[in-house]
Every structure is written in structure tokens, then in C-alpha cells.
Amino acid sequence: MSEEGSRWWKEPLLHFVVIGAAIFGVERSRAEPKEPSIHLSDSFLQALEIEEEQRSGRRPRTPVERGAMVARFLRDEALFREAERLGLARGDTIVRRRLIQKMEFLLRGSVDVGEASEADLEALLREDEARVRRPARVAVTHVVFSAPRREEAAALLPSLSEVERAPERGDPFLQGFDQPLRTQADIAGRFGDAFAASVLNAPLGEWSGPVESSFGVHLVRITELEDARTPRVEEAEDALRRAWRQREEDRAFERAVEAVVARYPIERDE
Fold first, then answer.
1. How far apart are the first and last CA of the chain?
2. Which residues lie across from 141 on neighbouring strands?
3. Where in the chain does DSSP place strands (E)?
4. How would residue 218 be classed by pLDDT, with cut points 50, 70 and 90?
5. How confident is the model at residue 29 (pLDDT cuts 50, 70, 90)?
6. 250 and 161 Cβ atoms separated by less than 8 Å
7. Is the N or C terminus of the chain more exposed, i.e. has fewer CB atoms within 10 Å?
8. What are the Cα distances from residue 47, in Å, to 39, 53, 63, 68, 90?
């Protein structure tokens, strides 16, 4: 802790808060059994300050703000302990669910599966090829017409048989007449599902259409085709490593849960 950070924990207001809580505890102890003390270490108070910043967006800066922060913690901790002592959590499904979630979080944080080997990645690729399989991609050039010009587009198609590109034969198109290699999903996102399906089934190097899209009707020529394929391990290494780690962490987590369950014997009525 910095010198400035150490000083504020010695502020009189903080001492007043802690002493006040202690006096209240002494008064209670005359009538009730003594409870375990609430320990405020320097490292804990630092963590409390960080938590306050995460909660409110700023750290407490003045002795008054810091004293109020500690007072809130003491209040909440005392109420929590008292509720726990009285057994108020028992039978409360919301509290039960929250504690289960917290235990799951702690168990997940405790697992360490290391790093996948090359053999692990190759085995995962064989087992789960669909996860990383590269879909087919096509590149196209096209001519676009407004919807009322569909017949004009159809009439133009035969004359394009020996032409590689013909943007000037149709309407202007701001998104470009030469579209690079894209998957069916990418094409559908730009031109619609019907257009994408037609393009993926069009013959390579030949003009076809008219094909409808949200922009009108198109004459389309596939300029490049890349078939769907399974990548090599090195091409999909990042995705495979993420998938392997997630799978192994899930398995380790379930084993940790099973170990917890095994600690509790089960009794059944005859």
C-alpha cells in the first residue's frame, strides 16, 4: 500500500466508525454470545476500495467518503452474519440458487486443463470437423437492373456470353459490380437469401439470371469458386484450441462437481 493509501486508514473518522461498531458489539455481547469479529486488514480495505470503484465508477477520495464506505460494509456484513445465524437462508430458493451459482463459479475457476497438444488438436478436428469446416465461397461480377426492367435483363443475357464484365449495360450500383470471394451467408446478408442460393448454384464462368435481390434483378457471372473444405490443423489452430479448452474445462468442472456430490452420503427411506 502507498504511503498516502496507508494514511487514510488512520483517519480519525474511520477509527470512529470501527470503534462505534465495536462498542455496539460490546453492548450486544452482554446479552448474547460473542460472535466472531469482523477483521479489517489493510489488504482487505484496499480491495474494498477497488470494489467501490467498480460499483460506483469512482474511488472514495475523502475521509468522509472512505468512512462511509467502511460503515456500509460493516452494516452489510453484520446483517449478513445475523441472517446466517438465524438461518434465514434455509428454505429460500433465491438464496439457494445464488449460492449454487457461486459454488459453480468457484469450481470453474479452480480447474486448470493446460494447453492442447498437436495430437489433441488433430483428434478434435477429426471428431468435430463440422465446427471448423470452411464453407464454399464464390466471387461474382454482375449487372443490376431495377425490378421493372426484368424482361430487358432477360433479353440482354444471350449477348453477354463472350463478355467477362458488363457493368455499363445496367443501372449504377454503389456497392460495386465485382464482388470478392464470399460465403453464402455473407452474400445473403448483402443481397438476400434467394440471391445467395441462386449464385451458389450458378455455373462457373457463365452468365446466368435474372436473379432477384433486394436491389432489383441481376445477371450474374461466377468468376471464382472455392469449394467447401476441411482446413488443416494450422489453418484452424486458434478455433481448435478454444474448442478444446472449452471442452476440457467443461469436463474438469463436471468432475469437480461429482467430487463435491460424493462427499455427501445419501440416505433413503426403506
1. 61
2. 178, 221
3. 137-145, 178-183, 207-213, 216-226
4. very high
5. very low
6. no
7. C
8. 13, 10, 17, 15, 30
